[in-house]
Amino acid sequence: MIQIADIILRNNALLAPMSGVTDAPFRRLAHELGAGLVISEMVASEELAKANVETLRKAEGGDYLKPFVIQLAGREEKWMAQGAKIAEDMGADIIDINMGCPARKVISGMSGSALMRDPDHALRLIEATVAATSKPVTLKMRLGWDFDMLNAPEIGHRAEQAGVQMLTIHGRTRNQFYKGNADWAKIADTAKRVNIPVVANGDLNDIKDADKMMKLAGAQGVMVGRGAYGMPWFVGDVGQYLSDKTLPKAKSLRWQHELVLKHFEMMLAHYGEFMGLRIARKHLGWYLENIVIDKNDLKPWRIKIFSQDKSTEVRAQISAFFTEQMAKQSAFEPILSAAMNE
Prior knowledge:
Layout: E1 3-4, E2 7-8, E3 13-15, H1 24-32, E4 37-44, H2 45-49, H3 53-58, E5 69-73, H4 77-89, E6 94-99, H5 104-107, H6 119-132, E7 137-142, H7 152-162, E8 167-170, H8 184-191, E9 198-201, H9 210-217, E10 221-224, H10 234-244, H11 253-271, H12 273-291, H13 298-306, H14 311-341
Parallel strand pairs: 3-4, 3-10, 4-5, 5-6, 6-7, 7-8, 8-9, 9-10
Antiparallel strand pairs: 1-2
Helix pairs in contact: 1-11, 4-6, 6-7, 7-8, 8-9, 11-12, 11-14, 12-13, 13-14
């Protein structure tokens, strides 16, 4: 199992930090469902230091997540150091540094993957963060800024020397955003340069590809991002597979119904009814896409559920959706069975 300082993960599958996705309810659910490690949304270090309410909400989780990880982003040593101290005070067991976000809003402020264009400045931020906390510091980045600047191996080596204790590499450059395919093999260039755990990230959507991903990347673990949309159990399933090569059983519609309602209630509790209803829509949309049996039913159900402005009505529509899907599944099963026996 991956070890970060004195922290040993329960398995080697990690949930990626994703802004607007891996909020406290989603992380808590993925953790309960077996993820080896879950990491907060990107938290702006300056806004955290200034006690911005929304930023503090993004950094929640210390009461129920162990290990508890807060990911910091920033461009100034002062704020990264202060952010690290506050994160530790909030109960963080690990502090992760974001040098991988490709969003224009982030890189325009010289944060995220923009730091890969200035390795010296990036290292000063890393050193300031490590010096400010007694907790282990990890780093997430991309292969480089573009194909002419594939400097993850150099930055990774220098980050290790500065005290970073785990690296996560997304197998694309910043300029690729999420286009094309993640190059798992290219991650190995960084893995060969360091003696700390390396986690491979990018395009893991099939459990059975996890071994291949780790082998090509020379990595000790994998990180799941978009593959967990509407499937918060997926990371835990990957972790189980990596641990004992057991493929998980299919999740029944009844089980998924209970899980979706639980997630919905968690979002309402976290954000309040007004914001919770609106934030829940994207998660409910992903659940619908993954679960609906007849894709022609997707749009009508999205309209039915998303047009509701009361939580009681949303719950009722979610349950109606699952009732219909279970009925359709029961109707299709004899047909599928007969086809398989022909």
